[in-house]
Amino acid sequence: MQGDTRYAFAAGRIRSLELRLLNKAGVTKLLEANLEDFPRILAEFGYSFPSDIRSASDLEHLLTTEMWNLIKLMENLSVDKNFPRLIRVRYDFLSAAFLLKEKAGGKIAELPPWGTISIQELRRIFEEERWDKLPEELAQGIKLAQKSFAESSSPSSIDSSLEGKYLVYLKQKLPNIPFIHSYYELYFDLVNVINFVRSKVWDKGLRFFATLYIDGGSFGFDFYKSIFELPHEQLPARFIATEFGRPLGDAIQSALQQNNFAPLQEFKDKSLLEYLSGAKYCPFGLELLFAYYIRKERELGVLRAIARGKIFGIPQEIIKKALHYGYA
User: Fold this and answer.
1) What global pTM score does this model have?
2) Which of 60, 61, 124, 256 could form a disulfide with 232 if both were Cys (CB 3.0 to 4.6 A apart)?
3) Which residues touch 292 (CB under 8 Å, ≥6 apart)?
4) Can you tell me the distance from the alpha carbon of 116 to that of 326, in angstroms, rounded to the nearest whole number?
5) Please, which residues have CB within 8 angstroms of residue 62's CB and are 6 or more apart in sequence?
């Protein structure tokens, strides 16, 4: 990677911050500690939390502030000002997924506040179903998610539909940087594989899978079409024969035979993190900000999961199983 010299200052800042990312040892300390010890432990990783954390709301406020700080860091360091905006647009899509599941009979959604559309405005739009007041790409994603949910009755189809629409939009708007585009090619492949397996487990047809398929991965739609009617026991071998090999085939077999998608999700997380580690070979550029943002956002999600588990008395082993790959 040659790098972009406009990011020389940003590269130095990101390199220093990377040294304080949360690691497995830190997670182990947090899992074994009382909530009152969190500020002391997290200080080792660059956090400045007050010592009087006592409730879930206290922690939510602190982690929400940390997320805002991360977005502001991207805004300050990125030469491409569209990149931080695209980060925030993702939360519009996430909020839309929460609200659709809420309308479908789920619990009252706790919406992420980091999107480009205020929570109050989004709720008003959803109450009136005025999709014309939303950006076109988000409105299209909502309509697709409604259709997918009507066909599958599965809330996860809402997530998949809106994530797919966001990723297509993101790919169109991101700068033409090979490292970032290759990351999303890998991401598209992994999301498509998961949605393919879900379609098979749910006993949905090829037409349903086509609504979830994201164009842009290395596996074209014709690949999935050619194997869609195969019996479950033959499918893992078809993926073992790809560049992903036996680990993906074994994860698919677990999902098809046991309806256990955890190994498949872990394979996805592991593959993406391994790819992001390649950013270290870039001397400077948007690639560094991109990789750091994804890793830091994951870290904040892990902290939220651990802290909530502690507050609500969830056993340590159950909390650990819920964490992203690389932390447990």
Assistant:
1) 0.90
2) 256
3) 14, 17, 18, 279
4) 30
5) 49, 50, 53
